[in-house]
Amino acid sequence: MTAKDQLTFCDPVSRFPDITPPKQHQPEPGLDAELEPQTDRGEDSYRGTGRLEGRKALITGADSGIGAAVAIAFAREGADVALSYLPAEEEDAQHIKKVIEETGRTAVLLPGDLSDKEFCTQVVEDAVRELGGLDALVNNAGKQIALEDIEELDDEQWTTTYEVNIHAIFRITKAALKHLPAGSTIVNSTSIQAYEPSPTLVDYASTKAAINNFTKGLAQQVAPKGIRVNAVAPGPIWTPLQVSDGQPKEALPEFGKSTPLGRAGQPTELAPAYVFLTSPESSYVLGETLNVNGGMPTP
Ligand code: NAD
Ligand code: MG
């Protein structure tokens, strides 16, 4: 998929080719490599302007979708990046590593399961060791499984969704704060679901409301240390999350078409929001949730 250059004047309605994804299914966690159509993670379009020169970033869920687009953008802006992802996503992670290295930056691969409490601490320690420090954290990994009826939602799914989406953010953030110097940033991936929960996503959507709230509370707590915490709330973005039971299969062809822009977003359209909140240019922005959702009204 070819996008118009990130910095070229264009109509947001038609910046990307219209997509009507065919019904498809992948086992969780889903691969970008097998998604139809392919997503735009900015490989051919994201142009850096040195806004993260010399930064050292850990990004979770960095192999695919939004996290992959953020990893590419961070590298193009001058950062070295540690990528956290599940072992089953090695193919996607290797692709992003290659793109980052072609940019002339370092990519550190850290596969493992964030529903494991010990791994949440280990991934931070490994990133610090491999990058030679840490000054940017992006908590982006997420689990989303749609179910029609709460009767089908078992305790295991409820608990794992909470483990990955919010408990891991608490654990990783706590481990990272020991290492983050003044000037560092944390950006959490939340969702439009935090305010407009779909009836099929009661577990997922409630974790996203928790992320928004955690972001605003923690931002105040660590502000005096010179650490800024913010969130990005995506709307419907075309990623592997959606085809690995994130949406009912029947809903895929219409995915994103009810937004004011009339289309789903591409992962690369999220990247500038994460770059902005990580870069020193947003030094007076704390506890903010930046909505990137094609125009859906938010509180
Ligand atoms: P994605 O599938 O590309 O990324 C999600 C990533 O989460 C996976 O790549 C995987 O590496 C990671 N992950 C899941 N379970 C994990 C586990 N147990 N251990 C370690 N890593 C695990 O999908 P995406 O849409 O790019 O999602 C990124 C974030 O954006 C998520 O937090 C998601 O909730 C959020 N979000 C997405 C949308 C959307 O429409 N795609 C909308 C709002 C919010
Ligand atoms: Mg993935």
From TrEMBL:
Keywords: Oxidoreductase
Residue segments, region Disordered: 1-49, 242-263
InterPro entries: NAD(P)-bd_dom_sf, Sc_DH/Rdtase_CS, SDR_fam
Basic and acidic residues bias: start-end ranges: 38-49
UniProt superkingdom: Bacteria
UniProt family annotation: Belongs to the short-chain dehydrogenases/reductases (SDR) family.
Keyword Oxidoreductase applies: yes
Cited SUPFAM superfamilies: NAD(P)-binding Rossmann-fold domains
Protein name stated in the entry: Oxidoreductase
Organism: Brachybacterium muris UCD-AY4
GO MF assignments: oxidoreductase activity, acting on CH-OH group of donors
Upper classification of the organism: Bacteria, Bacillati, Actinomycetota, Actinomycetes, Micrococcales
